[in-house]
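Please produce the structure of this protein holding flavin-adenine dinucleotide.
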Amino acid sequence: MRVQQPAATGLDLERVDGRAKVLGLAPYAYEHPAENPTYLYPVQSTIARGRITAIDTAAAETMDGVVAVLTHLNAPRLADAADKELAVLQSDEVGFRGQFVAAVVADSPEAAREAAARVRVQYHQEPHHAALRADHEDLYKPEQINAGLETDTQAGDPDAALASAAVVVDRTYTTPAEHNNPMEPHTTVAQWEGDRLLVFDSTQAVHNARKTLAPLFDVEVEQIRVVAPHVGGGFGSKGLPHAHVVLTALAAKVTGGRPVKYALTRQQMFFLAGYRTPTIQRLQLGASPDGRISVLTHDVVEQTSAIKEFAEQTAGISRMMYSADHRRTTHRLASLDVPVPSWMRAPGECPGSFGLEVAMDELAEACGIDPIELRVRNEPAIDPETGKPFASRHLLACLREGARRFGWERRNAQPGTVLVDGWRTGIGVAASTYPARRQPANTARIRFTADGFYEVQIGAVDLGTGAWTALTQIAAEALECGPEQVRLQIGDTDLPVATVAGGSSGTASWGSAIIGAAQMFRKEHGGFPSAGDTSEGDGERNPAGKNYALHSFGAQFAEVQVHADTGEIRVSRMLGVYSAGRIINPRTARSQFLGGMTMGIGMALHEQSVMDERFGMIVNHDFADYHVPSNADIRQLEAFWLEEVDEHAGPLGARGIGEIGIVGAAAAVANAAYNATGIRVRDLPLTADKFLT
Amino acid sequence: MKPFDYARAASPPEAVAAVAGNPAAAFLAGGTNLVDHMKLGIAAPEQLVDISHLPLDKIEGTDDGGLRLGATVPNSDLAAHPLVRQRYPVLSQALLSGASGQLRNAATTGGNLLQRTRCIYFQDVTTPCNKRNPGSGCSALEGYTRYHAILGASMDCVAVHPSDMAVAMAALNARVEILGPSGDRSVGLHSFHRLPQDQPQRDTVLEHGELITAVVLPPLPEGTRSAYRKVRDRASYAFALVSVAAVLRLEEPTETDDGDGPASPPKIAEVRLALGGVAHKPWRATFAEEALRGQPATEEKFRRAIDAELQHAVPLPDNAFKVTMVRNTVVSVLRELCGVDQSSGGAGTPASGGEDRP
Ligand SMILES: Cc1cc2nc3c(=O)[nH]c(=O)nc-3n(C[C@H](O)[C@H](O)[C@H](O)COP(=O)(O)OP(=O)(O)OC[C@H]3O[C@@H](n4cnc5c(N)ncnc54)[C@H](O)[C@@H]3O)c2cc1C
Ligand code: SF4
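Below is the modeled complex.
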């Protein structure tokens, strides 16, 4: 049976998993039925650095319902303890405050928690460093930075060019540590059956998760099954397994085969699930009086954990965004006694765009030209870093379309001049970009069922983005059938291998494999398959990457109101226009863009993880004190995109949309706040106190 | 969480007897603060005496024209009550500016008054805190103090009281009615909450086992206006950085106005100002009130009056901005209540126009 259908991609299809979610039937990690389960609650270190000298577990062990109390003294050994974030309960060393130092497994979550509170730990405390400072003594240059990029780059002679530039902007911008805070907490349910491990995990990558776990437990990857059909957000923090996954699997070794369930509390997520490093960014832009940039430098200081390195590629954006003959980017790390930083929505581009795009606004003002015009004048013909042509670069089209829709021409170039009902009002713009990545190593399988459906299988993960729906559409289009004839299966290592739902690469990477499998299926089984007919297909690395620079672009516009008396700040309007290749499903795509912009408003106005150096601890570690936008903070948000199919993006023509919505958002808000008030805030977040006069 | 017993009291006296007789017992109303504290390890009562169903949920007129607000009236009902909205808008506004709809449905009048500080060190049992653990030290003093006090603090504690409702009630000269093991008493709201001094563990003058039964609002003279303004770090669902409750009456305009020339500003007959987010209790700005009484309602007078109050402020490293924020917010609220035009934006920079909204 084969029904010819119009192309299924591009359809405004409702989420195929929507009904199950609304009815509460879509199982998240913690909700999977587990027989005779046990529950884990950890004990966390109360020092930032030192050694455990004694642990008294007696009071915990004798409590009713306690199955086991694990410490570094009695926990099963891991086969590989090289990754100190993951080597839980393997030694007496403490590398950051909040680290796991013990864990209780009990018959009920209440018993586990109460018993954990009764574990007494003594330490030998050593002096720690936990606060990032630009003048930190031992800043070092990492070998490479995230995404495998070079740590430093240089072209021409930036210092000489700065000395001779007619107009120079030389400013330092800072962004605070931020925590990903998906709604669904990080959760693991683990069970050993003999030497086979079954894990229900809230993860962005089932296959990566088991690849990480296998050597730790000295088993083959095939002995581990990781299942994650539905995930309630991750924003990068579930891209790599964190310590709790190992801890839960370790604990499951001592329960006699009973499953162990563990969901981090919100407070624990501030210590154990990754976060965005704080950044200190010095930008120097040198230009001619008419705004043509001759030199651009972006020097970054940021932090990593002493127990494991993560180097955010903050200045990466300054390598490709604007033309400048002389350029330099550097990254230096302070190695601190803090939790391990990691991926958070648009690592690199997100914080980096704050420095770069506010500096551009400052340059526009210094030159007396419109900020959009400044970007027009510095639009590169080719990628300034690699010298390759851009496969698709429609930044100017995004800026122009956004300007038209937003009413940019009504902007008053003189800051601090518009007062509406007691609110100073202004508008601002920033550019956005994100690399178009496609991961190889994806395989999809398609099987025709006896009842006439196409079963499409791939170990992809939908972390709430809409992958269930988009992949269904891609499969339908490739098979030339209706979406209702596709039965998608994802989120399980029993399915063919797939890469991470991250780096805005999921749809393009998995989609390519699905298209490959569909083509293979038709080739092998034709248009009238029989029940059981099966084919597989693989994705591939995008060959266009050799000859082209592959990026998406966008323009962010914000209208900001600052109360003239109290300094309170609101984003009254925000509008983004994006060029991200083909849009598979406008409904889920809009959600991604709006979600990115919303998180960008959070970054601009609210989010800040406050380090108390004395304790080596993020002190505002809950949702009452770590603010993300409330409904009332998000007023009018609009997202548009250019109709385009990127021929260099692969068979799908799509790039990726998960991250570009946050890039540049905070800068647009800061630039609008300046336009409203004449007060230039270079340190996020933009809180009321910074606008008090 | 430690195991605990739970009992429903059959009457207010029984509830009092149950709690007074057991040092480890506590009243449970909406539970939105107490249950949180039990989870966080801040409170570990052995017995909860549930009072949420007691017949203390009425809002009634008093003989002198005021209102008696039952201790278990939900915050959302109180905010929505027609008499409250009509006579005491400041209270309705304060309630609606607090927490979220769901929380206000559960939270009660009595529980709201007794909610404890949101000081992050108080809430994290792994850090020293004199309020939670007397004598252990105050972590906030040299820590993160953005939300802490600028008035009336001590070296032992610099926390602020988080309630919005209580700030409005302080400006309304409310009284708290209390039932204790040995009978009734009534305390003015202003003296109900304490300053920390050397006993920060004591938030209020309430003794263990004493039950709040109601809050009484005295009547307000005809022509009294009131308003609540809360400045916070996001548009809703956040505790105050600073807040202002103002209750005010202007003198009747005198007949000397002949219609020509600019009318002279009306005079302030009566004013009460309470500040939130600045102290261990709702802070009555009595110096400012005194400086305003009988004075013409002008921006200049407002500013001078609040400065008279704020000269006593002792800000901490992270919250020096609160002094300016309080000043500007008070001026803003008084301007609005007195119908004074904004002569200048904030406390300085002139602003122009209003037409060319982008
Ligand atoms: C996320 C969040 C945000 C919030 N935001 C705000 C805000 O912006 N502004 C604000 O003002 N508040 C806010 N609150 C606090 C909220 O207003 C209080 O939690 C609530 O008012 C407490 O009332 P309750 O009835 O639940 O008290 P409970 O938690 O039941 O009790 C609190 C305390 O009072 C005692 N108690 C209760 N009733 C009596 C009585 N009648 N007599 C004697 N003792 C009694 C209890 O024993 C307990 O010690 C917020 C709370 C949360 C959780
Ligand atoms: S300010 Fe008060 S509540 Fe906060 S830590 Fe100090 S003593 Fe504790």
